[in-house]
Amino acid sequence: MKKNSNFLESFVCAFKGIVYVFKNERNFKFHILFSALVLLCSLFFKLSYIELSVILIMIAIVLTLEIINTIIENIMDFLCKDYNVNIKIIKDMASGAVLVSAFISIIVGLLIFVPKIIIMLGD
């Protein structure tokens, strides 16, 4: 495999990788959908720059870990075609990392949005 010859070619290859994950991973689509909903809520509630930055960082963490999880799963499947308990543990840990980040993202979202919802309902 040849090395990318320039920045644009590297960018195109990276974009193709993201498109591959989007097309082939149900959970990535799920995370994209909820990210879009959270961003719409961010506009509706007029989040501060800091609140929006925290939301964007959490979205980036979850999506990045989902991509890394996909990479690990694909590498493990390539290396071992048959069932292997050690491979299963590796894949479970990778998906666990995504789950932890998703749960923390939910907590962060609640910390940001619940007070705004309470204020809105109180008016």
Automatic annotation (TrEMBL):
The keyword Ubl conjugation does not apply. Keywords: ATP-binding, Cell membrane, Kinase, Lipid biosynthesis, Lipid metabolism, Membrane, Nucleotide-binding, Phospholipid biosynthesis, Phospholipid metabolism, Transferase, Transmembrane, Transmembrane helix. InterPro entries: DAGK, DAGK_sf, UDPK. Gene3D superfamilies: 1.10.287.3610. One of its GO terms (molecular function) is kinase activity. Belongs to the bacterial diacylglycerol kinase family. This is Diacylglycerol kinase family protein.
